[in-house]
Amino acid sequence: MTASSGSTASEAGQRPRVEGDREQEILDATLDVLADVGYDRLTMDAVASTARASKATLYRRWTSKAVLVIDALKSQKEPQTAPDTGTLRGDLLGMFCGMGGLTDQRQTTILASVITAIGRDQDFAEAFRRDFIGPKAELSLKVFTRARDRGEIRDDVDLDIVTAALPGIVLHRQFLLGETPDATAIERVVDQIILPAVAVGPTSHRTHEQKDS
């Protein structure tokens, strides 16, 4: 390889890519298409059309639709830090109610749209669990660990199991039973299942309401 060709290759690798507001517009368009048709039917052409961009522009930044979808999922504007209300109940309600939580219908619609891909595309499933589910799981673990440090949770509670219980129950009821989750549903699971399961001593809905007031 000559010095000239090496320089050309280096320059090509350093060309500016889609970024900033334009990148977010494409990622938002990806989420729109994903919510509308699902992962299996999403194509780079459809995203390019929705974003009013060329397919070549997309491929310069994202090598496949799996990479594009993962980036789009990660780009969603939702809390990146765990709430710290002083109680486990308050933290759980703050985390799972509202934008990016289990009551966010756009979020759950998008989640439903990738369920089939998780079972069919191993590479996508690994990236989805690592880059999208992983950070959410870490926030949940932080909330429960902090509650244990405060003395709200027994030392023998398996945090790996209990952190998955709330989303597991709510998403089961939504996807399999057709129930749309709301704040009241989240509160019922927290008060009737999660808190009694981890509590050091007797607990009740009234007790935790008083703590959070």
UniProtKB/TrEMBL annotation:
Q: Does the keyword RNA-binding apply?
A: no
Q: What is this protein called?
A: HTH-type transcriptional regulator
List the PROSITE patterns hit by this protein, alphabetically: HTH_TETR_1, HTH_TETR_2
Pfam family name, one: TetR_C_11
PANTHER family assigned to the protein according to its UniProt record, in alphabetical order: HTH-TYPE TRANSCRIPTIONAL REGULATOR RUTR, TETR-FAMILY TRANSCRIPTIONAL REGULATOR
Q: Which residues bind DNA?
A: 43-62
Q: Which Gene3D superfamilies match?
A: Homeodomain-like (1.10.10.60), Tetracycline Repressor, domain 2 (1.10.357.10)
Q: Which residues form the HTH tetR-type domain?
A: 20-80
Where does this protein come from, organism-wise?
A: Nocardioides aquaticus
Q: Does the keyword Transcription apply?
A: yes
Q: Supply the alphabetized keyword list.
A: DNA-binding, Transcription, Transcription regulation
- Lineage of producing organism: Bacteria, Bacillati, Actinomycetota, Actinomycetes, Propionibacteriales
- What InterPro entries does the record tag this protein with? DNA-bd_HTH_TetR-type_CS, Homeodomain-like_sf, HTH-type_TetR-like_transc_reg, HTH_TetR, Tet_transcr_reg_TetR-rel_C_sf, TetR_C
Annotated Basic and acidic residues bias: 14-23
Q: Which domain of life is it from?
A: Bacteria
- Low complexity: bias regions: 1-13
User: Region Disordered: what ranges?
Assistant: 1-23
